[in-house]
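$ run holo --ligand "pyridoxal-5'-phosphate" --emit tokens
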Amino acid sequence: MATVNDNYDKLAAGYLFPQIAKRAKAFSQNNPGVKLLKLGIGNSTEPLAPAVIAGLKLGVDKLAKVETYTGYGDEQGDTRLRKAIAAEYAKLGATVADNEVFVSDGAKPDVGNVQSIFSPDCIVAVQDPAYPVYVDTNVIAGRGGNYDDKRGRYDRFVYMPCTEENGFFPEVPKQKVDLVYICSPNNPTGAVATKEQLAKFVDYAKKNKAVIIFDSAYSQFIKDPELPRSIYEIPGARECAIEINSFSKSAGFTGVRLGWTVVPMECVCEDAPAGKLNALWNRRQCTFFNGASNIVQEGGLAALTQRGQKECKETIDYYMENARIIREGFSSIGLKVFGGVNAPYLWVKTPKGAKSWEFFDILLSQAHVVTTPGAGFGPHGEGFIRVSAFGHRQDIIEAVESVKKNLKI
Ligand code: PLP
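-- output --
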């Protein structure tokens, strides 16, 4: 008799985006002809850089000739791309070898899959609020325990509150945990950890033989040269951190799909000596994954050339100008806005202590603007909404003007 993995029944989330879509649809049905203005989605909107398009075309052309055709590639990724990614770390003053880089079809699958190389007994700590994939994948793997509806938490996770008081970056856990998920620049809060803050987590992880899963999917949005773009800029991080990154937001590959994971040889945990975690991730990828698309990897290589980087940066600057427009517009009417300076997300405090969903509904009905309620990212997201800077400039301006003109607070 086949039985299902009943951990799926324990998933509390999966509710956020369908619920947003449901409310937006109901609004449109009740207000025919009213244009909905979207500031909720974390999806890229601008076309790929010309250098990247040329790279992708090169990848296609190679497949057309017998001399350059390739079938399955290395599961770990094209060596040229692994070297190019490693070289990016060197520019930051961080040491990463090409055999520590594993190219994939995106950060989300890696974030979801990486937990599988660890014991189901591991205690997991997550930032609260957080990108939901950290919580959900560990719930499915059986590490969450039971969901407490009243508290909005799973009883086996350790939640690290990210609040206005701590600048939306948490203290290290008081108790011993095994896996610590950190996302910086952060989705949803837009907060970026300083070197000192990351150093405390590295210190904690080394003392507790814990492993940090560092999600740096938005690292290219950091403008402040003092802020770390990789955890490997922190001394000792190679012994305790796995880093996951993506071409999605840095080069517009959300639909193209390309990412990578770094597992340093020195990275250890309680029962894994140096090299073992790297070997386990290698094994995992070789068993379950057949390598990223050769066409796409050619595009990724093009994105990492000097010309590619320059062009991709122009698109990032475009989104960051959107962020500035949102920040200034919202602040001008007295809203308290965080983030949006070194990250494409803005974290807006709801006025007069309104709940996230209440303020979501107010923005929708009064300004016709769709945002993302902070409560959907964890209990400490309550009282905030997430606003995304991804969008066409004209749409962003229209949405901000509508909020300025129509929102009554
Ligand atoms: N990590 C974070 C924090 C994200 O916000 C996202 C996408 O929104 C991802 C990872 C997913 O990246 P990818 O498109 O490479 O799967």
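-- notes --
The longest strand covers residues 241-246.
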